[in-house]
Amino acid sequence: MSSRTSPVTESPNQPSLEEQVETLKRRLAEAQKFTALGELMSSTTHEFNNVLTSIINYAQMGMRHQDEATRNRCFEKIMAAGNRAAKITTGVLGMARNRSDRREPTDLAPLVQDAVMLLEREMQKYRVELDVQIETTAPALAIGNQIQQVLLNLMINARQAMPKGGRLVVRLSQDEEGGVCLMVRDSGSGIPADQLPRIFDPFFSTKSGPDESGKGGTGLGLATCRDIIEAHAGKIRVQSTVGVGTAFTIRLPAANPVVPPSVMKSAVDVAPTAAQQS
Ligand SMILES: Nc1ncnc2c1ncn2[C@@H]1O[C@H](COP(=O)(O)OP(=O)(O)OP(=O)(O)O)[C@@H](O)[C@H]1O
Ligand SMILES: [Mg+2]
């Protein structure tokens, strides 16, 4: 039997390699969107359930105790839980409304607050102290829901890098050129220098699988972040030191630039240097 090897040529009916890569990238982005949405749904449902449990428990307590002081305390707790439930649904509705697929002037501050609100209980559970610094409300030229997806990915990675707790800083600021910067910095394990150049590669993961909260392990989180930021003509930068922590900084073009944006060489900048602690 003779064996024939087929030459590696592109037939006119077959998509080119570039086209195939583009199609796969699009599918990857879709898949990650659903993963992020799924994580969001499970965090939100879990949060809402916690709030309902508080309301039910305090209502029962108020019914059992006739004295005014206890009843007043129960009403206060029920009121606080009710307000929190309203905040959760407002946050989710905000995200659902924010489904535009076009880059438009977007104030990232409410988006940061929604993401923080959704993850704050999870952070508490893992003894992660959250420090949110909103220094600007200047609009970025962005697709809000995609930037929120990036932020959730970075915050979940940060939390997973601090299994024994730590500090997570989320800072929204503006640079001299008017660009909008979003920084997520943790005091976690840090990333070894030899792994640093690979963390944005699709499927690169050092996690053995999803953790007990069902998150992590596919290695698509940062690849998606990079694709999203590239599509925004932005930049994502990482600084990390083993044993000290990791800082990811995203820079997005301003909706109203102070000076015209300079030409970006690459969307990714990787630096194994100290994640400055401030
Ligand atoms: N803040 C961080 N601190 C330490 N290591 C990190 C941090 N962020 C990312 N990494 C490293 O980069 C790898 C890739 O991250 P990425 O988010 O792409 O995938 P993942 O978290 O493993 O899985 P998933 O696709 O479910 O997010 C991680 O497995 C981890 O080794
Ligand atoms: Mg991840």
Explain how this protein is built.
The longest helix is centred in the N-terminal third of the chain and has 48 residues, at 17-64. The chain has helices at residues 17-64, 68-97, 109-125, 144-160, 221-231, and strands at residues 104-106, 128-134, 140-142, 166-174, 180-186, 235-241, 245-252, 268-271. The protein has a six-stranded mixed β-sheet with strand order 2-4-5-7-6-8, with helices on one face. A two-stranded antiparallel ribbon has the order 1-3. The relative contact order is 0.12. By secondary structure, it is an alpha/beta fold. It has two domains: 17-94, Helix Hairpins; 103-271, 2-Layer Sandwich (Heat Shock Protein 90). It has five helices and eight strands, in the order ααβαββαββαβββ. The protein binds adenosine-5'-triphosphate and magnesium ion (MG). Magnesium ion binds at residues 153, 156-157, 216, 221. It is an enzyme of class 2 (transferase).
Helical fraction? 40-55%
Sheet/helix structural class: alpha/beta
- Count of discrete domains: 2
Number of helices: 5
* Content of β-strand: 15-25%
Radius of gyration of CA atoms, rounded to a whole number: 22 Å
Q: What is the CATH third-level topology name of the largest domain?
A: Heat Shock Protein 90
Kindly report the name of the CATH homologous superfamily of the largest domain: Histidine kinase-like ATPase, C-terminal domain
- Give me the count of strands: 8
Placed side by side, the strands forming the largest sheet appear as: 2-4-5-7-6-8
Mean pLDDT rating = 84
The ligands found in this model are:
adenosine-5'-triphosphate, magnesium ion
Largest β-sheet summary: 6 strands, mixed
